[in-house]
Specification:
The complex is a heterodimer. Helices cover 45% and strands 12% of the residues of chain A. By secondary structure, chain A is α/β, with parallel strands linked by helices. Chain A has 2 domains: 40 residues, no CATH class; 235 residues, Rossmann fold (3-Layer(aba) Sandwich), CATH 3.40.50.300. Chain A has a 7-stranded parallel beta sheet, sandwiched between helices. In chain A, β6, α7 and β7 form a beta-alpha-beta unit. The longest helix of chain A has 29 residues. Chain B is an alpha/beta fold. Chain B has one domain: Rossmann fold (3-Layer(aba) Sandwich). Chain B has 5 helices and 5 strands, in the order βαβαβαβαβα. The radius of gyration of chain B is 14 Å and the shape is globular. Classes of the chains: A alpha/beta, B alpha/beta. Guanosine-5'-diphosphate binds next to α4 of chain A. The site of guanosine-5'-diphosphate (GDP) has 16 residues of chain A, from α4.
Chain lengths: 342, 135
Amino acid sequence: MRPKIDPLDLAGKILQGDRLALARACTEVENDTPAGEAVISSLFRHSGQAHIVGITGSPGTGKSSLVNRLAKEYRSRHANHQVAVIAVDPTSPFSGGAVLGDRVRMRDLFGDERVFIRSMATRGALGGLARQTNALTQLFDCAGYQLILVETVGAGQSEVDIVRLAHTTLVVEAPGLGDDIQAIKAGILEIADILVINKADHPGADATERSLRMMLELSHQRPKSMVYHHHNTGEDSRAAKDEEPEGWLPPVLRTVAIENRGVSELLDEVAAHRTWLEANDLWQSRERQRVRADLQSLLQERLFSAWRTAQPVDLLEVMIERVMSREVSPFEAIEQVLSGRG
Amino acid sequence: MSEGKIRVLVAKPGLDGHDRGAKVIARALRDAGMEVIYTGLRQTPEMIAEAALQEDVDAVGLSILSGAHMALVPRVLDLLKKQGQGKVSLFVGGIIPEEDVSALKEMGVAAVYGPGTSTQVVAEAIRAAVEKQTA
Ligand SMILES: Nc1nc2c(ncn2[C@@H]2O[C@H](COP(=O)(O)OP(=O)(O)O)[C@@H](O)[C@H]2O)c(=O)[nH]1
Ligand SMILES: [Mg+2]
């Protein structure tokens, strides 16, 4: 179906700025193929430069419209920089297909060869991103993109993956959607480095801002680093060393994406957050947290599959039956498997 | 490793105003298990080709009601070929006169569908065309 991929050839072309090669590499990375891994591996030494900015918030708040404006504004400030946009939309659990419609709001970026937009389906992942979004971000970083904007699904309740991926997380709200209470419940304010009230042309922006500021004051007692440990069940407890000092109060900004209002100020804040991260050594520590989480999940995955293929019989299936028939508990099952008494 | 999905760009070139048909086909292809990149109204051939490149799609579906198909389609085909995507299958939907249908197919369009075609037929044709593509 697809032509055979030569990863080294692709990697070389990507370094020369070949956009079709980059697009093909995106597909390999998205499909989690060995070729995709090889492309990233061969370019990895070039990475580590990109500012990864997450944009989350409920559907319809204007995330795609803001991404459109932010990318455009950034490009007008940095003539030689490249911007990647990764826009994630949900996969239908019924068919496995998806409609990825974020490009509709990003028309203004057409014609700029230094902007690359890639739509991505969640393919069953639940945290607001796809499983391979992290790897795709790495690919763009390897390819020399200085700014990577990642738009999440925006389902509200479970948008936690983005905090681990992004250096800077924008939470977008809009007046009148009645979701500020929702957002607060979901703890979404706690993940925000910058809060955006988009659609500030709509009535109710004052009320939305008031309630956001109030909630922000309440939630600001809690340092952001707790969010990581909270949701990272598998995370090494040594990550707790990477505590973040106080000192960044999430600003609240109003924008009107369709009229390009407030966008320049928003980009200023994004840049200021980066400066703050670097000044406090947090750029490195966030990177370290991400690498740690990354390695840990890869290790889990690979160890599990190595273990599984090394078994003469499918022990997992055997154990499932024993647990189903209440012969053993799940704990006993694993105990027996690991001590070789399965 | 997860298997690759068929990726299809659905676009509505031309200046006429509604995209109901394009949205219906986008949803039908999603329901057939494909990943559909939907780009909306008033797309120029250049915009369509650029989106097809960035998204590395397997197929492109154009919904054309304006009557401008004989101008738009060759341009899209040409751009795809120039950028190294000559293998991408192009499908056209809309009200296309019989004589134009054969002309379009000669240019390299995989299939042309009139209004009322079952979306299942379209999905099957796209799947078959993509499976036939080789290196
Ligand atoms: N009035 C108004 N509408 C906006 C604004 N920003 C976006 N929209 C509209 O809101 C709708 C949803 O925007 P979109 O960017 O797709 O939101 P997303 O689902 O969060 O990505 C679209 O119809 C936009 O045109 C804004 O600042 N003011
Ligand atoms: Mg969107």
